Amino acid sequence: MKKTGLNVAAALAMCGLLLPACSPALNWRTVQLKDAPLQVMLPCDPQAASRPVDLGMGQVQMSVLGCEAQGATYAVSNFSVAEPAAAAQTLANWQKVVLAQLRSNEGAGNETGTAKKLNAKDDGLWVPKGALNLPQSVRVTFEGVSPKDQKIVAHSVWFARLEGASARVYHAVIYGDKAQPVAAEMFFSGLLLQ
Length: 194
Description:
Mean pLDDT: 85
Low-confidence stretches: 1-24
Order of helices and strands: HEEEEEHEEEEEEEHE
Number of strands: 13
Shape: globular
Distance between the termini: 27 Å
CATH architecture: 3-Layer(aba) Sandwich
Structural class: alpha+beta
Number of helices: 3
Radius of gyration: 17 Å
Number of domains: 1
CATH class: Alpha Beta
CATH superfamily: Mog1/PsbP, alpha/beta/alpha sandwich
């Protein structure tokens, strides 16, 4: 069997195990980021953008690659940090900013704080091969309410990697109206540092 045949066989086997994530609406494909050494698997045709963002430590130029499939948004963001020693604090700040974008809704009339961490089964330390082993390199599942009063459940990972004399920090996330653990596993397992 040729290498192409092995890839097709492996994809079919994976679809058999993860049937809901391999439905026709989730057409998984491998994409290489143009501005960073990361390969990702996305279930839809991605769009790329770059914009300045303030994460509480000054403005950074963030690149984003993302798409929408079956009512969920899949995105991978990254930017360079000049001082590798600042990667851990940068990841911590980035996590706080993302969680603060959603408000908690602990009950009728009790809308407070930031998104609520769900402590899902696979949450915790998440250090892909080639990434810096930092306590802030984590997988987090959280839920909250958007500014448009929509319930959002997210599966998210943050990690960093040395890149010459600097570091590059990454965030990959799925936003939807319900938990999607099977799709999250497929998405996160396809994040490969080059």
